[in-house]
Every structure is written in structure tokens, then in C-alpha cells.
Design goal:
mainly beta; 4-stranded antiparallel beta sheet; 3-stranded antiparallel beta sheet; 10 strands; about 0% helix
């Protein structure tokens, strides 16, 4: 899938044929990795799958350069209230900074 955006700075994804897979609805998006992608909606970050289902709820405060993070070893780094959280692909926090 490839990222696409419009003049109103809404982002979504298309396939190799140019067909829309996920509508332009997000403020910022990362790349898909292991079928999951970080996305921002209403100034909060979460993670979706390729069916646009929410895997990690939109409650994280990630900012650049977060967008370059992806799932590695089934974990993604996300920030909440300035603290690091490692979250697995099921949306469970497996470690959080104290």
C-alpha cells in the first residue's frame, strides 16, 4: 500500500492499481509494517490494520520522528504524556516508562 494525501492534508492508502484501500481521513500516517500502520486522528495517534480496524486506540501523543517507527519484533514505540510505551500488535502495553 502507498500513502496518499490531499490539499486539505488528509491522508489514506491506495493499492498498486490506484484503488483506494483506506479513505483520506487521517491527519498524519506512517508506513505499514507487518500489516499495521501508525495513524493520527484528532491530534492523537493509534494503529490500524490493512482493513482500517483500530488495533491500538487513538490515545497517544507521538510526534515526529515517530512516524518512522514501525513494528519490530511485534512491538511499536508510542508516547503518552511524554513517557515511552512499547505496545504489541494486540494493542497491549508490554512496557511503560515510569
Amino acid at each position: 500500500m502507498k500513502k496518499v494525501g490531499d490539499k486539505d492534508f488528509k491522508w489514506g492508502f491506495i493499492d498498486c492499481s490506484g484503488d483506494t484501500i483506506i479513505d483520506l481521513q487521517y491527519e498524519e500516517i506512517g508506513n505499514f509494517s507487518e500489516n499495521l500502520a501508525p495513524v493520527c486522528k484528532n491530534d492523537k495517534w493509534g494503529v490500524i490494520n490493512t482493513k482500517n480496524e483500530i488495533v491500538v486506540p487513538f490515545e497517544y501523543d507521538n510526534k515526529w520522528p515517530f512516524i518512522f517507527y514501525d513494528f519490530k519484533d511485534d512491538l511499536i514505540l508510542m508516547y503518552k504524556k511524554g513517557k515511552q510505551n512499547y505496545i504489541n500488535r494486540n494493542g497491549v502495553i508490554v512496557w511503560e516508562e515510569k
